Amino acid sequence: MGMIAGVVLTFALFVFIFWPERNPFVQADKTRVDYLRERKDAIYENLRDLNFEYMAGKYPEEDYAEQRAGLEDEAARVMTEMEVLEARGDFGRRSRA
Hints:
By secondary structure, the protein is mainly alpha-helical. The protein has helices at about 1-20, 30-55, 60-90. The model has no long low-confidence stretch (mean pLDDT about 85).
């Protein structure tokens, strides 16, 4: 009886692990706004890292100001595009990102 229970448990474990819907290579469709949100989050993380490294003395003032301005400009462009798309109700075509 214990051997049958072990086989059933092993089979159930394999089904749970290898079930096709849990395939990590299948990605959900993303809209342009979804992509822009991810990009905005990445930019903000880069700004936090840049500020931390500047405070730690790893960047001279000129380099810090230049990189910060570039990241802030990119964030502004992303936010503007997000606002335009959301205002129109156009969330872009879905893509396989």
